[in-house]
Amino acid sequence: MSLAEELERLSGENGAKKELNGWRLTSSAPDLGVQRARLVSKDGRTLLNNIQIPERFRQAYKNWFHLIIECNWRTICILFLLGFIVSWTIFAVIYYVISRLKTLKKDESCIANVDTLISAFLFSMESQHTIGYGLRYMTDLCPPAYLTLCVQCVVGVFLQTILAGIVIAKILRPKKRRQEMRFSRMAVIGPLDEHDKRPTLMIRLADIQEKLFLAESHVRLYMACSKINSRGDRELIGVKDMNVGYDSGWDRVLLLWPIIVRHVINEDSPLHGMTRDNIAKADFELIMTVEGIVEATGMTFQARTSFLPDEILWGYKFKPMVIMNEKLSKYEVQYSLFDQTERVTDFDAHPHDTEETEEDHHHNASGFL
């Protein structure tokens, strides 16, 4: 499969959702079986169920502008059309009522050539958008009529500004850019590299967009832990930050090609002391976030994913996917290997047995590869 075909397959929204973030399962990945409850889905959606929020409706619709932006394009187009049609209709009814109730001489009228509701609607539309065909026009005989016209002009400008702002904000919103971030289906724990055998949690990350690059992209990794309380309910007890290089600046990643985000399992790691056997039985969820700025618009976005304990492979490493083509003298990114892993032989399952030197701390710290 060519790179263009692979990118087209991965960019499909429906396929991406069905295949959990767009990537095929690795052949070495185990069957996940019964899924545990999770806080964040693989495609980044928050799965919390909020119950008995005080003033839920009021709190939700105080930010009505941002809620409309979150709607799909079909809903926004309907609101766009309804906004104008409703305003035209309201002022058309007002004009018609004024022209009917106002008593004038036989040859005089408040609005020339407006004697039906349809003609009042056409006059309302022409006035709000300053079309002015000339057949229907306002006279100075009815103060309520031309005061209504002044109000409609102000309301029309305000309505156009709001609707145009919603459309522009929707266009600039980097939602599609967020969907182009790809995380590996599984996380792996293996040696840091061939020379450093310290156990390291590794997650592969890629930006499949070839034309639009990101600025100031950085990653974060968190561990959300839970336990069974005295009442027999499982409760969330806290979120711990996992170092992926932020103390040395390695959390700011370069996404020109697929990278591997690394977290060294040392004494400061929440995973310290865990083994192959007890990590699969642990009650935690790893939540990874990637934030970046789209260069074309300057808008910031965040992509998220999560990993449960049974989605972590112990004693594995990712297969290399950025390989030099000697014939073309170019590096090739083979996306078919994105989720492929391979077993590491003689991997030490006890992280405290490996010592860290000063040189290792500076050159092989948590970060990305």
The global form is elongated
Low-confidence stretches: 9-33, 358-364
Structural class: alpha+beta
Q: How would you state the average pLDDT, rounded?
A: 81
Strand content: 15-25%
Distance between the termini: 26 Å
Quaternary status? single chain
Report the radius of gyration as a whole number of Å.
30 Å
Reported for the largest beta sheet, the result is:
6 strands, mixed
String of helices and strands = HHHHHEHEHHEEEEEEHEEEEEEEHE
Number of beta strands: 16
Report the total helices: 10
Helix content range: 25-40%
Written overview of the protein:
The strands form 5 sheets. Strands 3, 4, 5, 8, 11 and 16 form a 6-stranded mixed sheet that branches. A 4-stranded antiparallel sheet has the order 7-6-9-10. Strand 13 (322-325) and strand 14 (330-333) form a beta hairpin. It has helices at residues 3-11, 13-18, 56-61, 64-70, 73-101, 117-128, 143-172, 175-179, 276-279, 358-363; strands spanning 111-112, 137-138, 181-183, 187-191, 199-207, 214-228, 234-242, 259-264, 284-294, 300-307, 312-314, 316-318, 322-325, 330-333, 341-343, 367-368. Helix 4 (64-70) crosses helix 7 (143-172), helix 5 (73-101) crosses helix 6 (117-128) and helix 5 packs antiparallel against helix 7. It contains 10 helices and 16 strands. The relative contact order is 0.15. 31% of the residues lie in helices and 24% in strands. By secondary structure, it is an alpha+beta fold. The two termini are 26 Å apart.
